[in-house]
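Example 4.3 (complexes with small molecules)
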Amino acid sequence: MASPAKAAPKAPAAKKTAAPAAKKPVAPAAKKAAAPAAANRSAATGSNPAVNVQPILNQQNHAPAPIQKYGTVTQRLPIGLEDNVRLGSVTMLNQMLADTITLRDMYKKHHWQVVGPTFYQLHLLYDKHYEEQAVLVDSIAERIQILGGVAVAMAADVAELSSIPRVPRDREEAPVQVSRLLDAHQRILKNCHDYAKKSDDAGDDGTNDLLVSELMRTNELQVWFISEHLVESPLTRAK
Ligand SMILES: [Fe+2]
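Answer. The structure with fe (ii) ion bound is encoded below.
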């Protein structure tokens, strides 16, 4: 910090003495010598001492209180809904979110682990449904934030909250995979009907619309597409 302040006046002084004393051919040489000297000073002292470019790391280790606790509704956006209505919808939607994240991840697991003669079509179908469930996850979480709540997000919290039975780590046969998925879909759909009725009664039309138009319709369609894989049907000769 002290060296640039001391060094700064020296540079113009050197130029002043060099200019009148020296003839024309000498002046460029003096400039050449001055330029590296300035570069050396910049490298040694840094550019602008008022700006520290080092990120302030590890702030999580001494964080103050969180902005908002999970399970509360504190941000009141002007959307025409009372606090008790928002809190009721947020509670329902977090349950729906935990179950939908779980179903989404079941689809990816089964996409990787599927075996057998229907491998190709199930491999592709599972991934299509995974992508569609991922869209639903985002819609539910953002609805929770709009309502002033806090969306559940991390795997450990999702596992605690989800109503879908834990899926084993093991690789399972395709019909078992499909049966698990259908059970998860049905649990979600039963909650959809229940929550749609409650949100309608409470006057939360936006949540009701999300539940009916997006969640219910998408889950019903996916149930159809995977259910057909459990129907025994002759491939080449009708019985
Ligand atoms: Fe893949």
